[in-house]
Design brief:
Layout: H1 4-29, E1 32-35, E2 38-41, H2 43-52, H3 56-61, H4 65-76, H5 78-99, H6 122-152, H7 177-189
Length: 198
């Protein structure tokens, strides 16, 4: 018999599926389809998008001075993001196979596709690519961290966590030492990666 938490998790998944169905319907309304993960609009829609594009010079001329002055702070974040990407990629490639943790497909998180929209000018496209990379990377890193936590320390916190990751609901309850002890025993019974045959 499913627990109340398991029931809530199933209801969340059902809502996610309903949301995906609504998004598919919205794609039909906006008259595009996905081909090999790429959006393809109908020709008349592309023409309408191009007509709606604001030129780069007009776009820059309408920008507030404060926005222009803060732009270097936004773009400077690319350095720590690339370093994070590099280190997490190495961790993911080296440690996940050793721990026996299923790898996280990067392409499911880092989605860069808004530059395909004809109603965006060059700078807007660059900004959208940057945001797609940054937010996708953070989502990918979060899922890697979530799977790592699920492997090593799947214990809920004593207090509420804002927007817990996908594996958190299945974690052991805070203070449930019997469940923790059983988990340790189960882990010691599992074959290690070095013990497995290729």
């Amino acid at each position: 018999m499913p627990t109340r938490i398991e029931d809530l998790v199933h209801r969340i998944r059902d809502l996610e599926e309903a949301l995906e169905a609504e998004l598919r319907e919205k794609r039909r309304e906006l008259r595009y389809r996905l081909e090999r993960r790429r959006a393809v609009f109908e020709k008349d829609v592309v023409a309408r998008h191009k007509a709606a594009r604001i030129g780069l010079l007009d776009y820059l001329a309408s920008a507030r001075l404060a926005v222009v002055l803060t732009a270097p702070f936004i773009y400077a974040l690319i350095l720590p993001l690339v370093l994070l990407d590099l280190f997490v990629t190495l961790f993911h490639a080296v440690c996940f196979p050793v721990y026996g943790i299923e790898k996280v497909p990067r392409r499911d998180y880092v989605v860069i596709d808004r530059h395909q929209l004809a109603y965006l000018n060059g700078l807007q496209k660059l900004n959208c690519m940057y945001c797609g990379y940054a937010n996708g990377l953070i989502g990918w890193v979060r899922e890697i961290a979530a799977r790592t936590e699920a492997h090593w320390c799947p214990i809920k916190h004593s207090r509420r966590v804002a927007q817990p990751h996908s594996t958190y609901p299945a974690f052991m309850d805070f203070g449930d030492e019997a469940a923790f002890r059983k988990r340790l025993d189960d882990m010691s019974d599992r074959p290690r990666a070095s013990d497995r045959e290729d």
